[in-house]
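[Solved] Which block belongs to which protein?

Original post:
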Amino acid sequence: MKENLFDPKPKVKQKKRLNVLPENPEKKEGIGRFPSWLHRKLPKGGNLLKTEDAVRGSRLHTVCEEAKCPNRLQCWSQKTATFLVLGKECTRACGFCDIDFSKTPNPPEEDEPIRIASSVKELGLRHVVITMVARDDLIDKGASHLAKIIKEIRKEVPSATIEVLTSDLSGDEQAIRTVLSEKPEIFNHNIETVRELTPRVRHKATYDRTLQVLSAAKGHCIVKSGLMVGLGETEEMVKQTICDLKEAGCDIVTIGQYLQANHKKLLVKAFITPEEFKRYEDFGHSIGIKHMYCGPFVRSSFNAEEVLKKVREK
């Protein structure tokens, strides 16, 4: 059996319930209507259908759809999408995520790398973001499949830059090396929340393991991570997380508002104001993080190409 060089087990026993954050005794129904800064106009343009046709025609999944991303219409209208690989069923059931859960998902599709590469070419993507479901059922956690996808994209569209948004790959150092050996421009793995809320928000991943995974990528490529706010964390907790990500080697940190995907998921505890997001952004820059991208609608892969450009300029 292959040795796992990282801590293979969470230190805190995970609960099966999804709504595990403590209820607000004054507002059990939640915190009410969306504030004004969470309203925006529908995007214009005729590219939305072109993006949808490219995705449907290649029988691909996107995290835009599976995770009910609030930016889907805007991104698709700009002919960009974040590909979700290794199926659309995850072997983890995190309290915030709307992707379907399965202990025994379907095997990886052998032609998926070619289909994705063809879609990248059809859409004319200059920057490609590939994310994945957690595949704890696979020996290498899906790393070799992800590596094949990078290879096919390089072959079909050599000029494209590639960003991978991986699971923690169960902390398997060899699996991480397998992905990094294909030299993606950005290695992204989200810490998702602050240390104190991690056992409640994430199903199996641990805070420290995420930091270890990010540290393993340091020096190989640009390292990126992100978290959600509005789950009950304090400002000091978020600032400590930013410090921990800096220490782990992150060049880019994204912070966005958590939004409840359905009634079974964790409740939103607070709507974070644009002013608070600006404080997080300023704090990250003050301690030396190359690029902070913070705001209500920010997601890990949102405007990813523009973020890469800004980091390279710096």
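(Second protein starts here: sequence line, then its structure tokens.)
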Amino acid sequence: MKKFISSIQDIWKIEELRNKILLTLGLMVVYRLAAQVTLPGIDGSQLTALANKTSENNLLGLLNMFTGGAFAQASVMALGIMPYISASIVVQLMGIAVPYLQKLQKEGASGQKKITQITRWLTIGILLLQAPAYILGLPALGIPASAFLLGQGSTVFFVSSLILLTTGTVFAMWLGEKITDKGIGNGISLLIMIGIVARLPSTFLQEFSSRVNQSNGGLLMVLIEVVLWLVAILACMFLVTGVRQIAVQYARRTVAGNIQDAAGARQYIPLKLNSSGVMPIIFAQALMFVPQLLASSESDTIKSIGIAFQDMFGLWYNILFALLIIIFSYFYTAITIPTNKMADDLKRSGGFLPGIRPGKETADYLDTILSRITLPGSIFLALLAILPAFIVKAGVQPNWAMFYGGTSLLIMVGVAIDTIQQINSHLLNRHYDGLMKTGTKRKSVAS
């Protein structure tokens, strides 16, 4: 603890890092305040039914978690940053088949700037579909007609809400980009994380109250649940940080007659155990909407199948969910880790894998290793994703159980690790120890 406090003091001494952190915190506060603003024309006191619908064990509850409760409050930020995430995924997938996007990906910073602009416009296009669907679906979500101050079918309410929802997501997108450029960490990921974390205290207090006040296990059960949660976080950290290092040898090179690297340099290619991050879970959750649509079928057999997949903590839902995660882990890893390009880059830079010929054999070897480590990684990811279902069966409230695994836990742990690594880089560049590094402080220099 003393070492941790000392590192916090070191952070405060570096003016640039201090300003970045304060700016990041300030913009996240702005985002959370905007999420509390209800759409004009809706009586915020009559949203109880909507809040109850999003607290059930369904995908609406998951969406509400990602928006930090803004979805259930009919807020101007009700759609959150998710349309931008959807646009980013679409652009990334299109980069496999669209030659123009492939060309932009090879142009470096200038190409990435154009891709970002394309993603922004696509975000607006997605918003023009999602925002009307959200507005028109509010009555079906439980908002009574009396809550619409301008009338349930008012054109003024529809147009103004459409503009505000679109503006809210664009504003969130702008905040995220500003955090990335001027603050610390990945802005978009931080906004998603802060929305998830915002619901953590209230859900824990509800679980605490049910255990203590209702004599449902008492403080001992609360302590056991907290310990299990910390174990789940530790397991998630292993999944996020786990890598397989592939040794790379570089041939001796000469510059102007001098041997630049007499013995050759040995480096490593870090292949992640989970190269796809949370994307397989996001893809799988999107497809899980399809079986639920069967519940509205007129056929009793098909309807029963749809009903079986409506419970997020049910057996058949989680079996299919886990299988989809494993499949998408392989799919997303295959399209995002270009082993052929890695092999070509190694060959051009004079690097090679010991015992493996440069070129195609190197690409095949990397692909084989990646396939082997993706299997345990995908299974581990699937188990983490369905862990809340087991926690619920143990008597834990569903809202609190959601923090034991799935997308929410992976996002929180992944974003926290990424942010800490960026802070560490600032500290090490100024000759301080990293935030989580043990040992004595290095010789300090003027910041």
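Accepted answer:
You had them paired correctly. Confirming on the second one: Residues 360-393 form the longest helix (34 residues).
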